[in-house]
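Our working data are protein records whose layout never changes between entries. An example says more than a description, so a record of this kind follows.
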Amino acid sequence: MAYDRDVVREALGKARAEGRDSLTAPEGRLICEAYGIPVPGEGLATTADDAVRLADDLGGPVAMKIVSRDILHKTEAGGVKIGVEGADAVKAAFDEIIANAKAYDADADIDGVQVQQMLSGGHEVIIGATTDPTFGKVVVFGLGGVLVEVTKDVTFRLAPMDLDTARSMLDSIAAAEVLKGARGAELADAGALADVIVRVSDLVSDFPEIREIDLNPVFARPDGASAADVRILLETEETVAPVQHSPEEILAVMNRLMHPRAVAVIGASNETGKIGNSVMRNLVDGGYAGEIYPINPKADEVLGRKAYAKIGDVPGDVDVAVFAVPAKFVVGAVREVGAKGVPVAVLIPSGFAETGNVELQEELVTAARESGVRLLGPNIYGYYSTHDNLCATFCTPFDVKGGVALTSQSGGIGMAILGFARSTNTGVSAIVGLGNKSDIDEDDLLTFFATDDNTTCVAMHLEDLKDGRAFVAAAQRTTKEKPVVVLKAGRTASGARAASSHTGALAGDDKVYDDILRQAGVVRAYGLNDMLEYARGLPVLPTPKGENVVIITGAGGSGVLLSDACEANGLQLMTIPQDLDEAFRAFIPPFGAAGNPVDITGGEPPSTYEATIRLGLQDPRIHALILGYWHTIVTPPMVFAELVAKVAAEARAAGIDKPIVASLAGDTEVEQASQYLYEHGVVAYPYTTEKPVAVLGAKYRWARAAGLI
């Protein structure tokens, strides 16, 4: 697209030279025209006679709006009149707008009144962009007009974006079907709207000094889209770009962190109860095969290992230094670690920014950068790399190897992760604490886990993101190959600076995180248990090859609840064709029900379950199965579990591998049956219809985002 960037540069430079943090409406119009954003005809009137002349030139009714750099919210100030027609009405409107503006702010610098061609028809939408503290420039689209902040029917994407991403925004709001002409509504020109979205995205990407832009309302009609009102706010504060590392640099450090050949423990101790003792015991007792170097100037040896007064005395290279000393000693020790050539320090000590000691943490970060040391922490429980038998933590050891990598910003959540993994026997590749995230954060970990052959799924608890764009880039690389589950704590954000515009106000809550995480391809969990269950279940389920889901149940009530859960989780219940309906009916009693759900009724023997499940697996038109089991003496829980596992195994042996989830209702025996099914590749839960379907829904969300369906 051809843009006149010189016009924009001149307008922004003039405003900033005058110390302004906003543009006037005529300046906003100039910028829109420079970027090809359609706006109605208009002019600036400084007298009532000017207003009459402009209205006559434009023809028909006009909209009239106050123009003042000191009055951003024109409607609040009584500075807007619409549908004004006729010379007398225009004069009266001009005088009233000026009077209202002076009453609203007697000191306001008033340029005049904007007289604008009146737009009508179509739908009022908002297109804008804001500067999010986490993700930088984000674009908003949604229903607009005066009620935009009430309806909040909007969606966000990172800028810049392509036309396909812009079009996806049109489908991501609740009113999407209305814009497509549903129920007799006027059709909106989707191509014109997407074009405006891309132009706004390009504008704020080209000129990052634009803090926010609102086009509201944009009139979306069948023959195009025009922005009736433009508001542009400018940055007044200098922004500091986050420190960036290339993927290659990140991997070089992360591989030494997660697969170290030698670990030093700064503050290693023989005294039971001390963190330095616990870390040493976990390293030694966990079977870590690399070198372990205790650093303690007052000991000759720790746990039978030769101790060194300082890390510089260690003979040979060290990959990781785990710190277990008080905060006041950390900065000096980090410099010593850097002098030794150790690439990464794992900082267990607290007493930094989390306690208000921001200066000490800043000093720590500066020392690390000057010394060439990457920092994990501080204020963490340590980390586990199970396939290396590495337990570098003062918490309980964990040694069940598997494909799930788990990270947490909180130590308490880290222990919950540990307990869940142990109680469910979830195989883990790594558990990593991030704490204050003074340096290493989620995008560093994702960059590593994306290439780690031992990791098949990543689950992350986070309270914030230091660099949202780096995270999105890392997540998009990772989710093409393996699922990433994110639990974002603190789902209500402040966005204090953002209240100065509609776009900013809309961005001041969790909606930005929700949409951008989806754009990144991650599966978002809204509770801790959800995150853990997704992490446990997603690696178990094969990737579905299509959207057709079929429920087979022994209880009608469960079938209804499972159907509700499917809708809640974005799953598509298959419309059963006649031949398949007849095939199911051949196995179920006359009083049962084919269709979807397939209700085989509760009194049926194991053979009915077996035959219908086998049919569901063998028919290529069915892509996933949800099983609803009801405990009966005719088909006891373990009998059901064993036959499902057998049928599934036979199908896999024949090259058929579909996701199967199960809900088991019954007495306590269903707990053992559910565990048995999980161990045999079927995600199963007792006493709930929601959880198995939620895990299947999460698998589908990832598969769609990864382009696998």
Summary: The longest strand covers residues 210-221. The two ends are 32 Å apart (CA to CA). Residues 494-502 have pLDDT under 50 and may be disordered.
